[in-house]
Amino acid sequence: MAKYLLKRIFYLLLTLFIVITVTFFLMKLLPGTPLQNQQKLSPAQQHLILKQYGLTKPVWQQYLIYVGGVFQGNFGTSFQFSDQPVSYLISSRIGPSLLLGIQAMILGVIPGILVGALGAIKKNTWVDTTTTIVSILGISIPSFVLAVLLQYFVGLKLHLLPIADWGGFAYTVLPTIALAASPFADTARFTRTEMVDVLNSDYIELATAKGLSKWGVIYHHALRNSLIPVVTIIGPLAVNIMTGSMVIENIFSIPGIGEQFVKSILTNDYPTIMAVTIVYSVMLMVVLLITDIVYGIIDPRIRISGKSN
Amino acid sequence: MQSNETILAVNHLKINFNTYAGKVKAIRDVSFDLKKGETLAIVGESGSGKTVTTRSIMGMLANNAVVDGGNIQFHDKDVLKMSERELENLRGAQIAQIFQDPMTSLDPTMRIGRQIAEPLMIHKGVKKEKAMAQALEMMKLVGITDAENRINDYPHQFSGGMRQRIVIAIALINYPEILIADEPTTALDVTIQAQILNLMRELQDKISTSIIFITHDLGVVAGMADRVAVMYAGKIVEYGTVDEIFYNPKHPYTWGLLSSMPTLDTNSAELASIPGTPPDLLDPPKGDAFAPRNPYALKIDTEQEPPFFKVSDTHYAATWLLHPDAPKVTPPDQIIKRQEKFAEMQKAALAKAQHHQIEEEEEQQ
C-alpha cells in the first residue's frame, strides 16, 4: 500500500508539472497584457512596469524563473492587487470555496445515492418516476440558471435567505444548493442504474433464497455492490463542482478562488491564474487519489496489497 | 434414506406471466410430489417451466407472475398462500436452493465465511463467532481444502468448482428438508461436474435432505435421481422411477430426449435431435403441445389433450399412444434396445424376488 501511495504521489507531482507547463504557455498566448486597462500610462511607463515584473524577458526565461519559484513555494505577487503575494491571496480566499465545495459534494452525493437507490428499489412505481424527473431536471437545468431562480424566489420573494454576499451559514445555503444540483442528479441517475443491475444479479437471488428480508438483501448485499461504480464518478463530480464554483461564486459575490480566477483572467494577472490553476489541479488530483483508495477498500477484487491466488 | 413420507406436494399448479405481448402460460397444470430423502429430477428443454416451478416453491416468482390455480403443500401449509414473512422463514432454512452459475451467485464483496454463516445468523439467531465456526465446519464438509485460511477470502479468489461448493455450503448450513438444485453443474466443466454431483450425493446421505434436481442433461440424471419427471411446454408429460424413464419410456418426447443423448453403444454417425422448436406459450396449441414436433402424433393429439395413462404404480405418461384404441407404433431403435434391457432387468428382478421367496419358504420349513 505504501509503495502504491508513493508511486501515485510521484505521478501526481509529474502531472502537476505538466499542468504548470501547459498552463504557463497557454496563458502567454492570451491576448493583451496586464496593463491593458491602464491606458493613461505612456508606453515608456508601461515598459518600465513590465520590466519590473520580468515580463520583457523571453518567454522560456520567464518559464524557468516561474518554475524555479514554484519549487521554492513562491507563487509571485499579484498584478491586480498592489503587491499582494499570490499565496496570501489564495489562502485568504480558499476557505469559502472549500466550504462550498465540500457542502455541495455532501449535499449532492449522499441524497443522490439515497434517491437513486430508492428509485431502483421502487422501480416502475410513482417513486421511481418522481426521482427520475427530479434528476433529469437537475441535469438539464444549468447551475447558473438555478442560482438565479433561487435568488429570485427564495431570496427576493420569500425573504428566507440572503441573496448574495458572505458571512455565516445562511449565506452558504443557496450557492450550495445551486452547486449540488447537478452532482445530486448525476449520482441519483448513476446509482439507480447500478442498483437496478445489482438487484437483478444472481447473488441477490441467492441472498433472497437464504431467507433475508427485502431490506436485509438491500442493506447487506445490494448497497455496497452498487456503490462501487458510483465511487468512480466522484472525481468527475468534483470537477463539475469546481468549474461550477467559478460561475456560482460570481453570481453570489462570494470571496472565493473561483471568483478570483475569473477576475484574474480578465485582467491578465498571470501569477494568480497560474496559482489558482495549480490549486484546482491539486484538489482534483487529491480527490482522484482518495477515490482510488476508497475504491480499493470497498471492492476486494481490486485491492492492491492483496495476496493474489 | 428414502421413505414414503411425502414432504412436498405440488397440485395442479398453473402460473401465467403478464407481459406486454400478452399472457404467457408458463406452467399449465403441473402436479408432483417429493418424498422424504429422495431425489426427484425434473428434465426438460429451456423454457419448459422447470425453473418457474422451483421458483414458485421458494415463493420467489417474478412480480409479473400470476398463480392461476393449484397449491404447493409443504407441511400442511400452502406455500403459495404464505405471507412474505413466512416465506423468509422458509427460504434458506427448510427449503434451500443452489443456482446454475457459481461465478455470479456469490456476493463479490463479502467474505465467503460470512456468506456461508449468514443463513445461520438469520434463521437461528446464532452469534457471529459461533456461526463462523459452523461455517468453517461446513466448508470442510463440502471439501474446501485449507478451509481455515480461506474462510476470509473473497469469491474471486476461488475457482468455479470451489465456488459451487461454497454455494452448496450456503444451501446446506441449516440442514434444509428440501434442496432445490437448478442446473447446478451446467456452468461447470465435465470433470468438475462429476465432483459436484458426487458431493451432492454424499451430503444427501449425511444430512438426509430431499433434492429437486433441475436439469436439461439426462446424462446427469441417471446417476443422481430416484425418480424423474419430464417437462414439456409447461406440463409434465411423463414421470416414473429413473429406470422406468430411462429403459421403458412411453412418451415420444422422452424418446426424443433419450435418443438425442449419446450413449456408449450409439454407433450411428449422427446424433438424433428433436425437430422444430417448443411452442409459443403465449398461445399454446390445442391438444398435445408436442404434437407438431412429434413424428408419432395421432389425429386426436391435435384436438384433445392426452390425460395421464398408468404404466405402472410409479410410472405415468401423458400420450394418446397408451390409449387401448391407439395404433401400435414402433419407437426409435435406441428406445427398443432400452426396452429390451428393461425387460431383462425386470426378469432379473423377478427371478431374484422368486429366489428370495423360495429361500424364505425354505427357511420357514
Structure description:
The complex is a heterodimer of chains A (309) and B (365). Chain A starts with a helix and ends in an 11-residue tail after the last helix. Chain A has helices spanning 2-28, 43-52, 59-71, 86-121, 126-140, 143-157, 169-199, 202-209, 214-232, 234-251, 257-266, 270-298. Chain A contains twelve helices and no strands. In chain A, helix 4 (86-121) packs antiparallel against helix 5 (126-140), helix 6 (143-157) packs across helix 10 and helix 10 (234-251) crosses helix 11. The longest helix of chain A has 36 residues, at 86-121. By secondary structure, chain A is an all-alpha fold. The model of chain A has no long low-confidence stretch (mean pLDDT 88). With 365 residues, chain B is of the alpha/beta class. Chain B folds into two domains: 1-94 and 174-333, Rossmann fold (3-Layer(aba) Sandwich), CATH 3.40.50; 106-170, no CATH class. Chain B has helices spanning 50-57, 84-90, 112-123, 128-141, 147-150, 160-172, 190-207, 218-224, 242-247, 252-259, 333-364; strands at 6-19, 22-35, 39-43, 65-74, 77-78, 95-98, 178-182, 210-215, 227-232, 235-241, 309-310, 316-317. In chain B, the strands form two sheets. In chain B, strands 6-7-8-3-9-10-12-11 form an eight-stranded mixed beta sheet, sandwiched between helices. Chain B has a four-stranded antiparallel beta sheet with strand order 2-1-4-5, covered by helices on one side. The model of chain B has no long low-confidence stretch (mean pLDDT 89). The chains are: A mainly alpha (309), B alpha/beta (365). Chains A and B meet through helix 8 and helix 9 of A and helix 2, helix 3 and helix 6 of B.
State the gist of this model.
The complex is a heterodimer of chains A (309) and B (365). In chain A, 75% of the residues lie in helices and 0% in strands. Chain A is mostly helical and 309 residues long.
